[in-house]
Structures are given as C-alpha cells and as structure tokens.
C-alpha cells in the first residue's frame, strides 16, 4: 500500500539527485537540467500531498511551480546563449574570471 | 464544486497595477520609439503615480482603515505600504543613475526600464504577501528581471558571467524556498500565514519536524537573496560584474523586498516552529557580521568592498528580523530607508568615476577627488560615513534603532558582536575618504554629461542628512499599529 511517505521519500531522492547534478556537472545545459529535476522533485511532493489531503490548493501550487520553472528556463537559456557566444564553450569553467 | 471568485480589492492593488501597466506600456512604446529618454521618463512617471496611490493607502491605513485583497493574501497594512515607499524610492534612484550610465556605455536599449519596473513590482508583491505562494510569485517576478539586467552589458564577459552566476545560484536558492514551502504545506495543509499558524497551534499537531525543516529551507532561500553568510558567495562576483546601476538596484530593492518578506514570516510563523528555526538565524547573523566585515577589510576594488559591506548590512538588518514584533519591524523599515539612500548614492558616485567599460573601480580612482571634483567627493564622504554609522547621519540612527530592538528582544551577545564589527567597518569605509582628501590625483576625472545622476546623488545626500538630523518624523510615521495578521 502506497502512503504519503513513499511519495515524500521519492521527492527527497529526486531532490538529492538534482542537487548532486547541480554541484558536480560542468556543462551549463546539464546544470539547467538539474535545476529542472530539483523543481520536479518538489512537484512530486506537492501533488502527492494535495492528493492525500484531498485539496485543490496544492494542485494550484503545482501549476504555479510549472509556470515558474518554464520562466526560469527561458531566462536561463538566454543567459546561457550569451555566455556561449562570448566564450565559445558551454561549461562553467570560464565563469571563474573574477575569482582572483 | 461551485466556483468561488476571490474578493479583489482594486485600491489595495493600485500601486502594483500602476507599475505593471506602466511597464507593459513602456515595453510596447519601446517597439516604436527607441528613444530611451522617453521610456525612462515614462518609468519615472509610473513610479510617481504608484507612490501617490501608495500614499493615499498609507494615510487611510493610519486612520485605521486596513485593506487587503484576495482574502488576506495580499496585505496593505502599514508595514507593507512603508516598504513600498522604500522600494519605489530605490527604483527611482536606480533609474536616474541608469539613464546616464547606459548612454555613456552605449547600452541604450529602452527595454531596460520596463524590466526594472517589473522587478520593482515583484518586490512590492513580496512586501505585501500574506501567503507563501504569493511570496514565491513576487520573488520570481523580481528575480527573473534582475537576472537579465545583471547581464545587460552583453559584450562584456564579466557581465555575462555575473548574470549566469546569479541565475544559477538564484534558481538553486528558489528551489530551496519552494521545497520549504512544500514542506510547510505538507505539515499544515495550508499556504496562507494565518492558516499555517492555526495549523501549527492545532491540538494534536505532530508534524513539527517537517514544518521546522521547511522553515529553515525558506530561511536559506531568502537568506540567499539578502546575502547572509554562507549564502553570500554570489554577491561579490555579481555585484562587480553587473552594470553599476543594476548593482545599486540589487543592493537596495532586492534586499528590501526579501527583508520585508522575511520580517513578516519570522514574526508570525517562526515563533510557532521548533527552536531550531530561530537558532539557525542567530548563527547566520553571527557569521554574516564577522565574515562580511572582515572580508570587506581586505578588498581593493570599491565595488567588491561595497558588496561585502552589503553583506554586513544584511547582518545588521537580520538582527531586526530576529527582534521581530512591532519594534523590530519599525527599526528594519527605518534602516532600509537610510540604507537605500546611502547605498544607492555611493553606487551613483561610482558610476561617475568608472570609465566606459565599467573598469576602474579601484581605490586609486578616488585619489585626490576632493581637489578635482569637490562636490562629488563631499557626497561620497557623506555616504561612506553614513554607511559606517557616524552620528548625525542616517546610518547611525538606523544602527541605534536596530541594536536597541535586538537588545530589547534579549539578544545581547549578538548585539555586542554587531557593535564590535561595526567599529571594524569604520576602517574600510574611511579608507576611500582618506584617498579622496589626502592623496594626489592619479587619473584625469571624467568630464561627463550626467545630470540625472547628479539629481540622484542630490536626493540621496539630502535624504541621508535629513534623516540623520531629524530622525523622528519618519520613525513616528512608522508607528505601525496593528498588522492585519496580528489579531488572528
């Protein structure tokens, strides 16, 4: 029998995977994907909580998270293109210019 | 299920709607007319109209008429309205500085100004939020615009780097914030502050661990926006790489909004969470005060020094958050007003000293400034002394208010740390002053046409001195009375 805790655990594991990707990847696109995993992990949590509480509020929050994720990716890709155009590579390595 | 429409009070939303519609209008106008002067003026007009609506609401709320919209989810109590004034002031100063700067740096795309207005409107949403979803929406509206603005110098690698870094770490931080919101929702089943508190206090509540964990995650997410140590690493790089007017905007408006949100949730929700949530803020403050001030000591670049000084000021402000309650809220609003004036002023002076490519924010640029540009040097001295907390200037009164609120709340040892570190801070604030008055000039001062920047500096000097000499009137206006949420 699936309980709410199973879903919360799944969400936590996904969040951890996203965190690991964010911290270990050097490629900017992979980092953006990790951010998406983070948000989707939260989405799993929220939808499960809403389902088990039998509430519409949580589903609305889930829709908000999806919208926010979409907006973030749009801005993120634009910034990423700008970095790519200037540096010619798509990794975080050129982003250390200012760390003297 | 019947569809229930929310109660929308349009007057409560008026300042916000004015900003949003001005931003849309300005963006549309920019399609046909590439004159950035017209768009900048339109943006300033929008800010002024929003301020008038805000003033009307403020007067009404002082007369006891408290308004809210969407069923206590969007609040217009005196706290939120006072924060709106600070946000509008900060945005107006940033736009005044930007106009000259963008022209000099040949970055005059008029879309810049609508983005700034959108960001300011997000900040107002954060200040008014009475619900965690609204808080998140405000934060994202504000942040997404600032990510783009900090990469505005498209040809400069530093700026691209600043934008990308701010975006990546910002997305990371907002993921934490959203996770925290989800956990609090999971524990209590609600998003709006009064319902969360009611849920936490309910008989037989067992999920205190989840709720406390959520509270700590929210603290981390907002701590990132205000640059509390250890969530401050982005600040020096982003502050240095972003165009200077954007740095000014970031350091005042974004900080004000995040503190407004933090103050409200800390006053209402955190007392009901586990003791761990409050204790973690105490640790963050102690770290912030020490690391911020001591790292600022060893910086050579002025922009980097001001970035670490902004970190340190986040520490002082967080003391007021810790004090919570009416006293802390008043102290924080007062401090943020002073901080907006003096910090935006300091960055305004900086834009006049750096060259076209935004290089040259090192100390040597200040050498002999008192001889070549005496008024500019005097203004910078006022800002730096006020940031350091010298009496008769606004920063001093702000510090006194915050420290006494913190002592009142019983955080004596933390306040002692704050006082000691603010003495240390004198060293790095006074160093540029020494350079300006006791060194020979090394650079030819730039003779640039910069009327609007001068207006911004004038406003900032006037405000800093006025608030320093007559602190009482603004403080008594901030007599916040009852918050809308307090009685629930």
Observed structural traits:
heterodimer, A: mainly alpha, 3 helices, B: 488 residues, mainly alpha, two-stranded antiparallel sheet, 75% helix, 1% strand, globular
Question: Any overview of this molecule?
Answer:
The complex is a heterodimer of chains A (100) and B (488). In chain A, 78% of the residues lie in helices and 0% in strands. By secondary structure, chain A is an all-alpha fold. The mean pLDDT of chain A is 88. Chain A has a domain of 66 residues. In chain A, helix 1 packs antiparallel against helix 2 and helix 2 runs antiparallel to helix 3. In chain B, a hairpin with a 4-residue loop joins strand 1 and strand 2. Chain B has a two-stranded antiparallel sheet with strand order 1-2. The two termini of chain B are 28 Å apart. Chain B has one domain. Chain B is globular, with a radius of gyration of 21 Å. Helices cover 75% and strands 1% of the residues of chain B. With 488 residues, chain B is mainly alpha-helical. Chain B has 19 helices and two strands. The interface between A and B is large, with 41 and 37 residues.
Short précis:
The complex is a heterodimer of chains A (100) and B (488). Chain A has helices at residues 4-24, 28-53, 57-87.
Rg from alpha-carbon coordinates of chain A: 17 Å
Low-confidence stretches of chain B: none
What is the structural class of chain B? mainly alpha
SS elements, strand count of chain A: 0
Percent of residues in β-strands of chain A = under 5%
In whole angstroms, the N-to-C terminal distance of chain A is 56 Å
**Helical content of chain B (DSSP H or I, runs of 4+):** over 70%
Topology pattern of chain B, helix = H, strand = E:
HHEEHHHHHHHHHHHHHHHHH
Biggest chain-to-chain interface with counts: A-B, 41 and 37 residues
Secondary-structure element string of chain A: HHH
Give the count of helical stretches of chain A.
3
- Computed CA radius of gyration of chain B, to the nearest angstrom: 21 Å
């Amino acid at each position: 029998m699936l309980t709410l805790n199973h879903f919360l655990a799944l969400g936590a594991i996904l969040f951890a995977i996203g965190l690991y990707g964010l911290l270990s990847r050097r490629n900017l696109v992979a980092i953006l994907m990790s951010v998406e995993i983070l948000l989707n992990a939260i989405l799993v949590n929220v939808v499960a909580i809403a389902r088990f509480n039998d509430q519409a509020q949580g589903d609305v929050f889930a829709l908000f998270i999806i919208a926010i994720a979409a907006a973030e990716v749009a801005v993120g890709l634009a910034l990423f293109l700008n970095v790519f155009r200037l540096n010619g590579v798509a990794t975080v390595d050129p982003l250390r210019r200012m760390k003297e | 299920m019947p569809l229930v429409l929310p109660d929308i009070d349009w007057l409560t939303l008026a300042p916000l709607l004015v900003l949003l519609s001005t931003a849309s209008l300005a963006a549309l106008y920019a399609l046909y007319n590439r004159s950035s002067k017209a768009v900048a003026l339109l943006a300033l007009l929008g800010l002024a109209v929003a301020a008038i609506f805000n003033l009307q609401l403020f007067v009404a709320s002082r007369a006891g008429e408290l308004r809210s919209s969407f069923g206590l989810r969007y609040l217009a109590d005196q706290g939120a309205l006072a924060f709106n004034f600070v946000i509008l002031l900060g945005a107006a100063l940033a736009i005044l500085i930007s106009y000259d700067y963008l022209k000099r740096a040949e970055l005059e795309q008029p879309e810049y100004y609508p983005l700034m207005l959108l960001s300011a409107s997000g900040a107002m949403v954060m200040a008014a939020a009475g619900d965690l979803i609204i808080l998140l929406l405000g934060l994202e509206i504000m942040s997404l615009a600032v990510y783009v603005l900090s990469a505005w110098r498209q040809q400069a690698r530093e700026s691209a780097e600043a934008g990308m870094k701010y975006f990546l770490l910002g997305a990371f931080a907002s993921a934490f914030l959203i996770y925290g919101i989800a956990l609090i929702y999971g524990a209590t089943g609600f998003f709006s502050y009064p319902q969360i508190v009611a849920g936490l206090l309910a008989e037989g509540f067992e999920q205190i661990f989840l709720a406390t964990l959520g509270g700590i995650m929210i603290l981390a997410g907002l701590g990132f926006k205000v640059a509390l140590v250890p969530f401050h690493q982005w600040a020096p790089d982003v502050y240095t790489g972003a165009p200077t007017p954007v740095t000014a905007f970031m350091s005042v408006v974004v900080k004000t909004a995040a503190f407004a949100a933090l103050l409200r949730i800390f006053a209402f929700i955190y007392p009901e969470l586990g003791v761990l949530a409050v204790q973690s803020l105490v640790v963050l403050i102690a770290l912030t005060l020490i690391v911020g001030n001591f790292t600022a000591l060893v910086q050579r670049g002025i922009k980097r020094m001001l970035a670490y000084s902004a970190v340190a000021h986040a520490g002082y402000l967080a003391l007021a958050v810790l004090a919570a309650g009416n006293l802390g809220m008043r102290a924080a609003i007062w401090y943020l007003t002073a901080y907006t004036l003096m910090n935006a002023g300091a960055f305004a002076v900086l834009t006049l000293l750096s060259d076209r490519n935004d290089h040259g924010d090192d100390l040597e640029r200040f050498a002999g400034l008192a001889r070549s540009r005496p008024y500019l040097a005097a203004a910078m001295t006022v800002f730096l002394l006020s940031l350091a907390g010298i009496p008769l200037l606004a920063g001093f009164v702000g510090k006194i208010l915050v420290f006494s609120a913190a002592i009142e709340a019983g955080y004596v040892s933390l306040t002692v740390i704050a006082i000691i570190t603010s003495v240390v801070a004198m060293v790095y604030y006074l160093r540029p002053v020494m350079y300006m008055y006791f060194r020979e000039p090394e650079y030819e001062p730039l003779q640039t046409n910069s009327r609007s920047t001068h207006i911004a500096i004038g406003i900032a000097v006037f405000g800093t001195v006025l608030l320093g000499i007559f602190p009482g009137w603004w403080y008594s206006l901030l007599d916040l009375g009852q918050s809308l949420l307090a009685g629930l």
